Amino acid sequence: MTRPPLVLAVHGTRSALGTRTSMELAEAVADASGADVRLGWVDIHTPTLTDTLRELGEAIIVPAFLTSGYHVTSDIPAAIPAAGARATATPLVGADVLPAVLDRLDAVGDFDAVVLAGAGSLRSRAVAEVRAVARPLSASVHRPALAGFVTASSPSVTEAVATLRSAGQRRVAIASYLLAPGQFSEHLDHAGADAVSAPIGVHPLLVEAIVERWRTALTEPLTLSRPKAVND
To answer: Would you list the DSSP string of 117-163?
Structure first.
């Protein structure tokens, strides 16, 4: 029986490095899974997710997103009927990649406190998801941790860094809760911290999380309608 292709739904970026990172992630997922892996961009780039689904006819979509923002709760589910494809969308990768964030953070050296820097969203659920990850992050590093956001939400990353400094924390690090380099990751370099970890990038744990979601979804029927499994 032919297995449905894996469509990696990804956020577009005007950063050439960020775009290349998404392409390399798709290649790593293909190598690890043996699946036919395609990219479906939800903004900026083509082919769009709808274009990719229309071309394939059927697929399993894995949202390469960390929080349940608009793209995950609206754009990805809407792409399936728009394409007329038989498809299902798995849960996003989300907090399962915290060990990868910790791995990147370990490379910055010692620190007294840390800001978990998320992209930000107008969706309260997406903001709450980042704040929820800050708690196990703090427990893992045995240091105070606050969530901060690049845009749309508060506190900003800069404000979170300042809050920790005002509480007496001398060396403050930023843990990038971002998947790929781009404008948002560049913003973190100017947020007043002593060190900034790299985005998650093509990390083996991210690849593993994506492949696991695809394999789990192989047991589920594909549908033409809005799927239930997009973290609604």
So the answer is: EE---S-HHHHHHHHHHHHHHHHHHTS-EEEEESSSSSSBHHHHHHH
d(Cα 107, Cα 154) in Å, to the nearest integer? 27
DSSP single-letter state for residue 93: -
Q: How far is CA 85 from CA 9, 53, 115, 123, in A?
A: 15, 6, 41, 28
What CATH class has 95-196? alpha beta
How many Cβ atoms from other residues are within 10 Å of residue 69's Cβ? 24
pLDDT at 232 over 50: no
pLDDT by residue (tens digit) across 134-185?
A: 999 999 999 999 999 999 999 999 999 999 999 999 999 999 999 999 999 9
Instruction: Compute the distance between CA of residue 149 and CA of residue 119 in angstroms, rounded to an integer.
Output: 5
Q: How far apart are CA 37 and CA 150, in angstroms?
A: 30
Q: What are phi and psi of 229, to 5 degrees?
A: -100, 35
Nearest alpha carbon to residue 121 among 212, 227, 11, 8: 11
Summarize pLDDT for 51-65 with one digit per residue, the tens: 999 999 999 999 999
| Residues with Cβ within 8 Å of residue 99, at least 6 apart in sequence | 205
Domain residue limits, the chain: 6-94+203-217, 95-196
The percent of residues above 70 in pLDDT, for the chain, comes to: 95
Q: How many CB atoms lie within 10 A of CB 223?
A: 15
What is the token pair recorded at 189? Answer: 């370099």
Q: Looking at domain 6-94+203-217, does it have CATH number 2.60.120.260? A: no
The helix (run of H) or strand (run of E) holding residue 165 is: helix 157-166
